[in-house]
Predict the 3D structure of the following.
Amino acid sequence: MHIVFLNPQGNFDKKDSYWTMHPDFGGQLVYVKEIACSMASLGHKIDIITRRFDDPNFPEFKDEIDGYEGFDNLRIIRIPCGPNKFLNKELLWEHLNEWTDNIIHFYDNEKTMFDFMTGHYGDGGLACAILKSKLNIGFSFTGHSLGAQKLDKLGATLNNIEQLDQKYQFTKRIMAERFAIQYSDLIFVSTSQEKTEQYTHPLYLSTTNNSNPLKFIITPPGANTKVFAPYSGNNVEEEMIIRIENIIQRDISEKRRELPFIISASRLDPKKNHLGLVKAYANNEELQSQANLLISVRGIQNAFEDYSNSSLEEKNILDEVFQIIQDKNLFGKITFFSINSQSELADTYRYLTKRKSIFTLTALYEPFGLAPIEAMSTGLPAVVTKYGGPSEVLEENNEFFGVLVDAFDENDIASGLLKALNNYEYFKKQGMRRVVEKYTWLVTAKLYLNAIKETIAVKKNETVVIDDYFLNPEKTTIDVEIIKKQFR
């Protein structure tokens, strides 16, 4: 099969540049890359279609064709639209018609056409719906996290909804998601909780009816078990060993340097709740006596000296973190480390398993939680928020593969961290077994392919008419008053 992944805002390149440094370079890129590579390894022709621009701040994305080493049947195709510079995803909506027309033009020039599309996030889903109306080719939608869910988690009210909409373009995003849901042939979700919590939100309920039942396929993401392999022999780069040991020497008191580490490796974002983690650590002397704290801060070489190159949001978080460090005298117990790629992250995990370290993600809500799976794959026990997908990853039939905590309760976070530290070998083995049995990308890719193959066969001669008015991204908005009704 020839399958395309549509990601207008997903900026892919062979070096995985800028991953975790910006909200538009987050976990969705890992998800798409890994499934695409796995599909290609099974013999299918795969194109990841994204946006092309020539911006000196992002020079990696100016070429039309790119790819990944070792995957000759996988292409990264960059299609231009809008201004020739990087745009945040919130600014892409009005350019999607141009983008999809240029996609058709690209394949017309090649005298080829694909068999099926997969759309990711609202913009990719809407782009698929537009192309379906023009080409009559089926598509699947993978929402990753839906706008209404984010709206709720940001604490939207009648008083602040218009301000939030101005920043995040919720009226456009939610309407795009509604059309992606309504006209998709398949919807891939990571967990049953994602299906029941996100897609049943009142803002999406009208997208389904008896004549158009939604077809959900539960396909959990996985770990790249080659990249995130356990420690063995010399599978940690010497340069990374030196870097890690240097930051330990720099920031950690001499008498504490052999202690395990609690590792937080998510981007600095209020939703990831770094403050909750630091407060939990700061207020628990037993936890401090057993482990140091390591927080990943990409692009910041020494946070104790300078983090002025951070975004305003990141600075605000670090300001509060350093206030806690100052108030609770955590100097010598905490370090900040710039991890710049997946390979560096995996090396860091592997190296710190030798110290019986643990991984933590205390997000206020996590749609799925790929990061814990990657950490577990290397042998790190995981202590993770119970809100969202991780509750299905780390627990099944009353068997636990890690520790679930209440991210809103600092005492519970501290207790969970201590539980993992005090039961290290048990949770290490449980986590590694869980990944091997259920969470690899090859398993995910096969689930995708089986569902796509079946759908192509069933929908082969079906024609779908989609109202062109609603597929004009400049007009595709939901009235803010409809959203406001959710708060009355």
About this structure: The mean pLDDT is 90. The two ends are 48 Å apart (CA to CA). DSSP finds 18 helices and 16 strands in the chain. The chain has two domains: 2-222+442-487, 238-438.
